[in-house]
Amino acid sequence: MIHSWIAMGVLASLLSPAVAGAPISIPAPVLPGMDHLKLDRKLEGKYFHEPVGHEKGADDRLGHYDTRYFHGMVTDKERVETLHHMVRAYLDFFRENKLETWIAHGTLLGWWWNSKLLPWDWDVDTQVLDTTLVRLANEFNQTISHYVSTDKKYEREYMLDINPWAYFRDNGPGHNIIDARWIDTTNGLYIDITALSAFDPRSKPDLLECKNYHKYKTEDLFPLRESSFEGVVSMVPYKYQEMLLEEYSLKSLTRTNYENHTWYPEQGQWVFDG
Q: Where is the signal peptide (predicted)?
């Protein structure tokens, strides 16, 4: 499904090849390395790549790295440290540039427990509206952000990369459901950014969907609630608890032992059991 509204037309002019019969005119691709894109949507190739082999027994954790910056698996300590600073840098960048974003999926579940990432997580999930995606593509695509921690001990660079197939709001071949990434250029760990669109704006204007079939009512998402996550300002959906129950069930909010970790309420954190 291709939407002809103005916002996505702007995104198309930045990201996508011309499509025969489309209601809007789309110029040739302008992103570096995307000259192979053809007019036929059937030739859509996967944009983001992870160092995951198809061989039996491949380590699933490899799927959480962007292959362009992958130099080998990091230790658990480095993973936790990387994700902590990466999400802080991401949230600060979006707030400073007045870009609306909120945390989602397993990341939102971590926030529900103690406003932190779940200690066994390997990546971060965030969402934006497609109108925000347009601005990301227009003003910030493939930019590198320099980050220094508040104690000056941690320094990194992150690339914001927009998937050029993000213009197509349907699932398509199924391998471009992630619309953008915020990538640690040191080791390849990343934040997944997915955009929400009104797939049927005429009959269902209040229903928003992503390319991975997650559907939300606007009243469940908005107005966003201001909170904190990993020590910085963040936004969360308005009906966060109902959304978590629907996606993960009641057990996710009550189970206190998971992935070799135990929840200690007096400490307000998950502790590794070894």
A: 1-21
